[in-house]
Each structure stands twice: as structure tokens, then as C-alpha cells.
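Reviewers of the previous submission asked for a worked example of the structure-prediction workflow described in the proposal, so we include one complete record here. The input consisted solely of the amino acid sequence. No template or homolog information was supplied to the procedure at any stage.
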Amino acid sequence: MTDIPLHLGKSYPRRDALEKVTGQAQYVADTDVPNLTHGRIVRSPHLHARILRIETAEALAVPGVIAVLTHADIPGAKIYGDLLPDRPVLAGDKVRFMGEPVAIVVAKTRQAADEAHQRVQVTYEPLPAVIDPFAAAQPDSPQVHENGNVLSHFTVCHGDTTAGLAQADLILEETFHVPRVYPAYLETEASQAVLNPNGTLTVWVSSQQPFHDRHHIAAAVNLPEEQVQVCVAAIGGAFGGKEDANMPVLAGLAAYCTRGAVRLVNSREESMLAHPKRHSGQLHYRLGAQQDGTITAVEITTHLDTGAYASYGPAVGQLLTEVAAGPYRIPHVRSETFVVYTNAPIAGAMRGFGAPQANFAIESMVDTLAHRLGLDPLEVRRRNIWQPGDFNFTRVRVNQAESTALALETAAQEVARLKALPAPPGKKAGVGMAMALQTMGLGWGVPDDSTNRLEWQPDGQVLLRIGAPDLGQGLNIAAAQITAEALGLDLSQVEVAPINTLISPDGGVTCASRMTYMVGNSSMLAAVRLIDMLKEEGARLLGVQPDQLEYRGGQLLRLDQPHLPPIPAAEITSRLAEEGRPLHSTATFSFPYGPEIPTDLGIGMPHVLFCLGAQIMRVEVDSELGSVEVTHATAVHDVGRVINRAALEGQVEGGLAMGMGFALSEDMILKANGQWVDGLAEYVLPTAMDVPGEVKIILLEQPESSGPYGAKGIGEAVTAPTAAAVANAVFAATGVRVHAAPIRPEMLLSQE
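From that input alone, the workflow returned the following C-alpha cells.
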């Protein structure tokens, strides 16, 4: 290892960038196999209904149709789930949301599959439905599942909120509504499976968690996991939505039952109906403060809509509960969260995992508090922000708490700069800010491990095997940089292998802003071991003791005979290859929870690492139309230490755009005709035209002591505060405080 960084902080292009922009990248839909057939999923047209019968004869009569599979055809586990086994692979007696899979048509051509899909006759008995989480939590609501609609309920208390509110000079009470947001990745969900002649199953996936997929596939087709091989193709974005195993399981089932090869690809409309969204819901806040702006207490009650099945709903509820009070030293906090089943589309993992919803509410409340007291929002935050040595309300000492103060003061300078900009005629300008708080890692005491394998090839190249997919965020290039840094090699000497569950180690799921931290740490551990092994084998081949050799930059130096030229690693590895002794090391890094972390909070062991920062948005609001344009954005974030600057800045820019969609345009709603918003023509995504003309990125490099070279996460922290910063900017421009996202023109015009 070197004192002067070889690769850290530099901007290296992603190695798959050219393939992706030229169309050469091999996504699931591009992966060709012999005798490939095509699947089409028959989906429920009802929010809630009993299945009376399924008739397949007319569909089977279509030329080219091979099979129509239903619940009865599943040879293994008919129910699955990431946290709770509550979701049918194919619906049996009931459907609980519009778009739920009921049957799979397999045909020799896509055209035949499409035609047969229309001819599967399903007779339904409609049942009462509920799509509002607060209503669903009431005792007289239609029951989505027989054991009740409240899936999980968490309460964390710190101090005495009754006493804290009694000490307040002012009490604010508001209810916030947050939207159901579609991840909107470029590549829709797709999977392809082949039953091999030896009875094993190979499945290509676009997935964030191939090893979990393997588990669910194997269970559904009743095969041992070692007989299921999952390969990760190029992935066109995920944002949490591809933690769902539905497509891999259905493709594996179809291939196994037809004894062949089957491809399943969702249309955009199917993707929007059937795959997880960001949780919608309502958050009720009651906040007390003294006249000087010091917050004395806050009570929070949240109802989250997890849709028809659990997915990651309980975990999202846990994380939201943890961050609902923001990065503030509030002596009395009570945060209560209900995660509720409804007949809406499934909500699961999505970028931020509950933090964007919580942040929208708490940062709006802090701004409202400042306005009601006649104080500067910056000053109110200064008086309440975390300080070094503080514990948050889950009794966790806040790592890098000084980053919050540094981010706040940096933000203050940006607020002043942007406030000085004039508004054009016919428009009102405003500047708003919000603090960023995002947890890092799986948390709750869940085993959080990442295993990497390094293989020194005979030609001197190092092959890095990781089992966590690169979703487009640049994980592979960052992992290669860290590995090359640890080994003192040129970056071109490190290659990242494709993921294959038969060969790759299990790196865990790509989520929770954990990947650079986890993969980086395991790469560094594996590199240390690999160097030791190279010295041991080199010493054996040279007939010396290992302590007589020094490793430096891919070479071994003879300390006993320093006049001799260095011995390249390739010379050692090639001789080992001739002996049939490959040189490789495997290392596992486990998340350092620590023994002092409380476990009696009602949410399990809380998160212990955080991503912190602040964001500032300038908006211009059309006085006649009420339309909102974000003209300037500044993101101030503590990233620990920058590994790949270009990839990091890309994450920031993407996170800002996604947060702007949450703030201003995105909401998957049930229309008057009883159908969910259909396709991207109705669901309004931000485009390149909506991105601010100025995006300023300020990186605060406060090294995280447990991170690889001090690095930690950034992928989710940028999305979390964006909507709140936009809402606060809109208030600054118009004097209208909105309590619901997305912010629509009619909200602003009706209150003027």
C-alpha cells in the first residue's frame, strides 16, 4: 500500500460505459440461447377478487403455445417473500392487487404468447378493496389478508414527550402526504431461464440480489440451491425495485415446467402495475419548541402503504422510524409507524428506503417553526443540529456528527448566494434548504457481510470476483480502484468478473448505500491476504524466508540481496500455475455493529452509520400558472472519502433528479375509471429539461474510520432531502406551505 494515493479520488470511466452507449451491452433481453421460447404473464384486472376458475383450453389451442401454467403447476413452494412469505408465486384463490400474476403463457413466439395471453379465461368474484393506508388500519376496513391489515407496528420513545411538549412555547401540528413513486429504470424487469440436460437450472437476471433470487427460484421448483445457477446480465438501473424476485422465480418456474428455455420481459405498463414502488402514506407531526427555536419534543405517527404484500415494507417502516426526527438533538421523541396492507400495487425497496418520506416532513416542520417564530431557518437548524459526541434518539452515538455543522455552514453560504439572484418578470423566486440524513448498511442487527475473492492470474492480472451487482452506479470501477490501490497496481491490471452464483462469492444485496463500504473493505482484506500468500509462495520458490521478501507494486524485492532486480508477481503466479497451485484469496467483511448498541427499542438493533449533508434549491414560480421550475441546486454531502469522483458526481446528479420527481410531478394514482395511471405518457418523470441549469456539488471529505480508505455511501442520501428543499423554496417564493407531494400548481394558486 502507498502513502500517496494511486487511484483514489480520480475520475475513471466505467468499464461498461462504451458498451452501454453503443448498444453492445448484453442485457437479459439480449441474451440468446437455443430454442428460446417466450413467456407472457396473465395479470389480474381487479384490485381485489376471488378466483373462481381459470380456463386455458382456448389459449392452448393457439398455434405455437407450449403451456399455460397456474398456481396448481408449481412443484415447490407456492408462496415466497423477502422478509415475510406472504406472496403467491402465481395467485391461487385470490388476487389482491391489479396486475398480480395469475398464469404464465409459454409459446414459441412472442406473437403467439401475446395472443394466447388474451385467451386465458379467468372468472373473478370482485371483493371490497381499500387503497388508503389510514383507512386500511381501521377495524372495519376490508381485509386484504385474513390476519389483518396492519403488517407491522414500531414505536421508539426517548424521553417524555408529554413533558417536552409542556415545556414548549409553541406547538405545531401538521399531517403530510407522500406519493406512490415508480422507480422508472430504463430497463424493465426481465429474466431468462434454461433447464439444462442434467436437470440443473440456469437463470439470467436483472437483479440487485442474485443469491436471494437463487433461494426463491430453487424453493419454487423444488431443487437444491446448488442446482440453480443465477447469472447477472447488464442492468439498466434498479433503485431498489429490482430487489423483487418475482421475475426470476416466474422465469425459472416456466423453464422448469416446460423443460426448455423461457424469456420473460415486462412491458412498461406491466412494470408500473406489478413491481414495487416507493411507499405512499401519511405522516402526522406534533412538534414543540421554545421561543428561541430550541425544539423540546416531537411526536410522529406514520401510516405507510405497503400494498398487497409485504415485500420490504417492515424494513422501510423501521428505517423511517429511526430517521423521522432528522439530524436534530431533540430531548423528547416518540416515533410510531404502522406499515399497512392495502389493495394498491406492492411497495418495497426504493432509493432512500423511507428517508425521503420522513425528510419531507421533518424538514418542512423545521422551516415552518422558523417562520412561525420569525427566525431564520438556518438559525433554527444551528440551535438544534447534532453536535460531536451526541447520541440520537435511538441511543446511537452519531458518527461524524461534525459533518452536520460543516454542511449547515456551507449551506448558509449557498443560501446567501442564491438569494441574491433576481427573479425574472412574472415569476417569484425562493431559496430553500433541507438537511440530509440517511442510514447506511442493512441495520437492525441483520447479518451484513460481503465476501470478495481475488485471483492472481499467471499473466500478472488480478481478477476480482464480487457477488453484488453493479446497477449502473459505478460499483465495479470503484471496487477495482480500491483493489488496485491496496495492491499498488495499475488500474488496468484489475479486472472485475461477471457474477455467477456457482463461482462468485456472496456479496449480499446491492442496496442501503453499503456497497463501496462493504465491497471496498472486503477487497482490502483480500488484498492483504493475497500479498502475504504471494510472499509465502515466492519465498518457497526462491528458497528464502518470507520476511526476506518485500512486496511493492506488483513485485517482490529481495531484502537479503537488494542488488537483484525485483521479481514480478507474474513470474511467481505463472510458476504456480505450472504446479497447479493457483494463487487466490477470499475475505469476508462483516458490518461493525458494535456491542454497545441498544436492542430494546422495538425496531431491533438500530443503524449505526449515517450519510449526512444538506441541499439547497432555488425555484421560480410562475405567478399566473403556478408552475415550479428549479433553477439552481447545491448538494453538500459528507462522503467520507471520494473514490471515483465522476461516478460519485453522477450519483448526486441522478439523486437530485429523482428527488425532484418526488417533489414536483411523480405520483401513481388510481384514476376515475378504476385503472392505475397507465404508462409514462400519464406518469410524469423529470427530464433533462427539468434538471436545474446549475447543479453545484460540494463534497465534504470527513473520513469514516471504518470505511475503505475512509469512504462511505452516497447513493441514497442525495434523494432524501431534495423534496423538502424544493417545498421550502416554494414557501419562500410564494408564502404557501404545502403538506403533500408532488407539489401541483393548483396547490399554490388556490391559497394565494
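The first strand starts at residue 36 and ends at 43. We consider this example representative of the routine output the project will generate in years two and three.
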